[in-house]
Amino acid sequence: FQSKLPKTGTNIFSVMSALAQQADAINLSQGFPDFECSPELVSLVNQAMQQGHNQYAPMTGLLSLREAIAAKTQELYGASYHPDNEITVTAGGTQAIFTAICATIHPNDEVIIFEPAYDCYAPAIQLMGGVVKRMELEPPDYRINWTMVRRLISSHTKMVILNSPHNPTATVLQEEDIRELISLTHKTDILILSDEVYEHIIFDGQPHRSMARYPELAERSLIVASFGKLFHITGWKVGYCMAPAWLMNEFRKIHQFNVFSVNTPMQYALADFLQVKEAYLGLADFYQQKRDYFRSGLESSRFELLPCAGAYFQSVKFNHISEDNDLLFAKTLIDRVGVAAVPNSAFYSKKTDFGILRFCFAKKQETLTKAVEQLLKV
Ligand code: GLN
Q1: Residues within a 6 A CB radius of ligand 1
Q2: How far is CA 147 from the centre of its chain?
Q3: Ligand 1 center to residue 70 CA distance, Å?
Q4: Residue nearest to atom 4 of ligand 1 (CA)
């Protein structure tokens, strides 16, 4: 038997969460909130089920939800995406990313990704016979060197994958990056896959530079978003993709044979809940408080804190504390102080190890307090 992904093991989030569970450790590894979503959202699902919305949703997503997404995108980014042919509801961000890659990448097409990168990009590209062109970014600021990116471009370059706010580094794209991206892709057929699942978790008053804001980029972009991050419901697995009609048409050809459609009652609930703007506009402040608490708690620890401009991850450097590789150090941390983190080498194909761990701070106060207390013992 020939494996389709011979070098791929179980993803790091499942591995670290399982270790945390076995050891009864505080789980700051896998990124998910340990607090409840809004009870209103739960009763809206209940209501939808009671009202009999229990059969297939339309393949492309519930129209009222696509309309609500279009209205939000218009209001926030001044961009119009038509609910009929430019927005599709997906079973979470990961499915949207996989479908986007499946719909666009042919054998030998080259795709540029920036590492550390979220773990689902490269395998999807490889499965399509595409070639992953990696550029490694370095701590502490992980800035993209656009001159180097230009050197990676060839006549086979089909796509660039971006992720802002970024998992795991918590960096966000700056205006200069956008200018470079526009000039890089201008008059080319290069597509952009923009993973924007943390769009509302961005700190210190910075704007989210969605591809949707820039017509030159939007016309070649597939934008991926996630309700899991937006409303603390990662287990619902609902997200969406937005793209110009010609690209969305291709996306839907795959989507219909992959998941066909996404769970119906959840879509009813989300369509209603999306009308309450405060529910997502307050998200940045909500998480900024958690970031600030976690950072100030660790200030007197032995860890060195890296910057955190967005998403819900705080990276720390530990290589002045231990010479262990980051995976080993993460495992030892579970055993010694009962706190689980993700080793950042997991986000590099070559397992590049800068001695950095990623902690998720999307946790209730009680969890963060206990975690800080334990981490101060290192
Ligand atoms: N996005 C989450 C993280 O980065 C995990 C998602 C998953 O477990 N697949 O931790």
Answers
A1: 11, 13, 30-31, 167
A2: 26
A3: 26
A4: 31
Closest Cα partner for 34 from 323, 312, 223?
A: 312
Say what the pTM is: 0.97
Are 104 and 158 in contact by the 8 Å Cβ rule? The answer is: yes
Residue 249 half-sphere exposure, CB side, CA atoms within 13 Å? 3
ipTM over 0.90: yes
Domains and CATH numbers, the chain: 12-30+282-375 (3.90.1150.10), 39-276 (3.40.640.10)
Q: Do residues 54 and 264 touch, judged by C-beta distance below 8 A?
A: yes
Q: Which residue has the tokens 């009999």?
A: 52
Residue from 19, 27, 32, 166 to probe ligand 1 pocket by mutation (most atoms less than 8 Å from CB): 32
> Which residue owns the Cα nearest ligand 1 atom 8?
13
Atom of ligand 1 nearest to the CA of 168: 4
CA dihedral angle for residue 252, residue 256, residue 260, residue 264, rounded to 10 degrees:
30
User: Which residue is closest in CA terms to ligand 1's atom 2?
Assistant: 31
What's the CA-to-centroid distance between 78 and ligand 1, angstroms? 30
Q: How far is the CA of 215 from the centre of ligand 1 (A)?
A: 30
- Distance from the CA of 30 to the center of ligand 1, in angstroms? 5
* Residue 239 CA, ligand 1 centroid: distance in Å: 14
Extended beta strands in the chain, E state? 26-27, 87-90, 110-115, 131-136, 157-163, 191-195, 221-226, 239-242, 304-305, 313-317, 339-340, 342-343, 356-360
Please confirm whether the linkage preceding 168 is cis (ω < 30° from 0).
yes
Q: Cα–chain-centroid distance for residue 143? A: 18
Is the sign of the CA dihedral 71, 250, 235, 359 positive or negative?
Answer: negative
User: Counting beta carbons within 10 angstroms of the beta carbon of residue 224, is it exposed (0 to 12), middle (13 to 18) or buried (19 or more)?
Assistant: buried
Residue 276's pLDDT band, with cuts at 50, 70 and 90, is confident
pLDDT at 277: 87
